[in-house]
Amino acid sequence: MSELKGIKELPESLCELYNLRTLNLSLKKRPQGMGKLINLRHLINDGTDAFSYMPKGIERLVFLRTLSKLVVGGDGDNSQVCSLDCLKKLDFLRGSLVIKGMGNVIDGAEAKKANLMNKKYLLDLQLYFSYDDDDDNDISEGEASSSQCRLQIDEDEASATEVCRKDESVVEALHAPPNLEKLVLRGYRGITMSFEWMGSLTQLRELTLRDCINCEHLPPLGKLPLLERLQIIGMRGLKRVLPNHFLQVTSLERLNIDYCPVFKQWAKIYHHLPITSDSETTRRNFGKALEAIENVIDETRAQFAVRGIYEDLMAYGYIDFTKEYGSH
């Protein structure tokens, strides 16, 4: 049904197909009685970007193996829309799961009820705190700034602090499943990412942090022994970050950084860091990670030469690390 053009919703009678195993759809509105499809194994809805909410009843689909996307809360009647705890008994979910509307989760208690840590077959988890985020779209820096503005908190300082703390408690209580190989966190409004469960992600190979504009520090990367790919995009609130921080991840092969002013300092401090050593010991211990870091530094140096961004550094509150740390 995903290719039926012009159809925006399906009749409720569809929900009488009790033995239906697979439903592939891309519609603006789903039937309210989907909870009747108790034998459903695969609900493929990753093309439903126009979806404003999901109806209650998903929690009854306990044999579900595939759920491409879950929309939490939304524009529907609160008594009729799906909340995060609908995942509680869906322990057979596997593959990839995108959760949008994480900003609507009430508190850590609701997040904990989702029982994500028991979803041992999930390998790819993507948490979006907004609805209109789309990682498949390439955006310019100007568009990125506009996107981030939509994520800014408009309330007073007390309300902003409350939202930050709520997001932190929600993600901490969520406790991602330990077998994850990929994790995406986008639009998160907390200040810290020091989640206790991060240390249990021993199989994680790819981590994307995007538009987490209030976050001041990166998560403890040294607890991710198999991490190969790290993307840090639109994290304008990051404080001091040095290349040395990434040497904790000796398996790192690719480091992608965009729209993060703090990293513009790297080009200036490149020749004042011990990691630039070409010694055999350094290469042997940090080979992969060092190559990934140097690729980013080379790109940053090129930005200096081509774009002349010295003025930008001053505007962003540039710190002269050569004075703070001295040369090595």
Automatic annotation (TrEMBL):
InterPro entries: LRR_dom_sf, LRR_R13L1-DRL21. It comes from the Eukaryota. Gene3D superfamilies: Ribonuclease Inhibitor. Residues 84-235 form the R13L1/DRL21-like LRR repeat region domain. It holds the Pfam family LRR_R13L1-DRL21. PANTHER family: EF-HAND DOMAIN-CONTAINING PROTEIN, LEUCINE-RICH REPEAT-CONTAINING PROTEIN 57. This is R13L1/DRL21-like LRR repeat region domain-containing protein. The lineage of its organism: Eukaryota, Viridiplantae, Streptophyta, Embryophyta, Tracheophyta.
